[in-house]
Amino acid sequence: MLRAKRLTAQQVVALWREFYEAHGPEVMRAAYGWTSPEARPIRRGERVWAFYDQDDRDACIGWGACYLSLDDPEDVEATLVVGVFPAYQRRGFRRQILDWMSEWAKAKGAEYARLVVFAENEANHARHHREADDPANPWVWAGDVWFPAAYSIFMRDLRDPRDLDGQSEAAETAEATEVAEAAE
Questions:
Q1: Alpha-carbon distance 69 to 110, whole Å?
Q2: What are the structural domains, with CATH classification, of the chain?
């Protein structure tokens, strides 16, 4: 189980520098497109969290960033970025962070989550494609972009399936209101 801590801009810069140094320049360029720790600016409206092991409060497992315009009601897509420190990779933390951030974005009104995976990061790229083929995985492959850098886009539908079928609580309430108004 992970514990999330929302970071200030200064904390983000320090964490990303530590993350960059832990992975090294070659991996960071291939995986994230970063040429230096400072190459990744914090975008306006982006929120960044550090994730810690619930049992070891000092062990930072990784981080997650979510961009969702809370000022634009038409913007229903959250863009997620996740990073796991090398010592904690291959233990399922990436998926836990993505799940946590997807739930946060959904609670803020997002209907979809978007994830970009660079093709140059071959192992991660192949893993995401493999996982997207698994019907139990909520992420689906949405397409590839080949210029200026090759990457794949993966999407996750955050909408309540009952909303899609017209069976949500809101739909049920609306039906009940219509019935009550018709009876009057």
A1: 9
A2: 2-183 (3.40.630.30)
Query: Under DSSP, is residue 37 helix (H, G, I), strand (E, B) or coil?
Result: helix
* Cβ atoms of residues 125 and 115 within 8 Å: no
Q: At residue 61, what is the residue type? A: I
pLDDT in tens, 9-59: 999 999 999 999 999 999 999 888 899 988 888 888 899 999 998 877 788
Please give the sequence-ordered ranges of beta strands (E in DSSP) within 11-150, or none if there are none. 46-53, 60-67, 77-84, 112-118, 139-145
**pTM above threshold 0.85:** no
The share of the chain scoring above pLDDT 90, in percent, equals 60
Contact (CB, 8 A) for 151 and 145 = yes
**SS3 (DSSP) at 117:** strand
Q: Is 12 exposed, middle or buried (0-12, 13-18, 19+ CB in 10 A)?
A: buried
Backbone angles phi, psi at 81, to 5 degrees: -135, 135
Pairing outcome for strands 77-84 and 139-145: unpaired
Nearest-angstrom CA–CA distance, 116 and 100? 17
Contact predicate 111/68, CB 8 Å: no
